[in-house]
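User: Here's a structure from my thesis project, written as structure tokens. My advisor, Dr. K., wants to see whether a designed sequence matches the one we expressed. Can you design one independently, without my sequence as a hint?
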């Protein structure tokens, strides 16, 4: 196996792992909601349930970003790119370059914000009193994954001429 193939498998596995983790956080949201309902029915209190569900929603969103990008689930400017004809590759390169810069910038500041929250020992203002860096950590990891995915697709586009995004549903429905 060549190094390029090994790297491709690692990156695709990383994006898949992000998608799996996102789905586990969605299951955690369901579990929290059911536990909160049971607590209400039995007259008990589940302090911080809303906060925990919010943390899980943020984690699910951020972990899913790279997986969604890799599978063509993000909104793209396909109509404009299709109208560009022969200049499409330049348009895609420009779009991926801008997306890569923004994703990298966001990942940098997500990590920086998480570090600052850890350093200052910030606590959530909800009933849960969770150290805020813990839920922010999932945002940072997800933002890093997204930045890696953008860099991956930008490099593929520059050197191979194609970005590697597999837009399964959009491409199939428009072809039929």
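Assistant: Designed independently from the structure alone:
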């Amino acid at each position: 196996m060549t190094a390029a193939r090994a790297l491709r498998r690692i990156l695709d596995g990383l994006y898949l792992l992000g998608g799996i983790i996102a789905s586990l956080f969605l299951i955690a949201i369901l579990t929290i909601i059911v536990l909160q309902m049971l607590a209400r029915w039995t007259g008990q209190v589940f302090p911080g349930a809303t906060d925990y569900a919010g943390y899980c929603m943020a984690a699910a969103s951020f972990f899913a970003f790279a997986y969604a990008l890799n599978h063509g689930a993000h909104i793209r400017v396909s109509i404009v790119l299709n109208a560009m004809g022969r200049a499409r590759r330049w348009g895609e390169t420009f779009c991926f370059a801008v997306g890569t810069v923004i994703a990298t910038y966001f990942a940098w500041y997500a990590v920086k914000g998480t570090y600052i929250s850890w350093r200052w020992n910030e606590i959530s203002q909800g009933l849960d009193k969770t150290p805020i860096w813990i839920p922010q950590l999932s945002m940072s990891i997800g933002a890093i994954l997204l930045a890696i995915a953008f860099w991956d697709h930008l490099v593929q586009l520059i050197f191979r001429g194609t970005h590697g995004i597999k837009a399964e549903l959009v491409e199939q429905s428009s072809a039929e």
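When you compare it with your expressed construct, this may help: Residues 3-175 form one domain.
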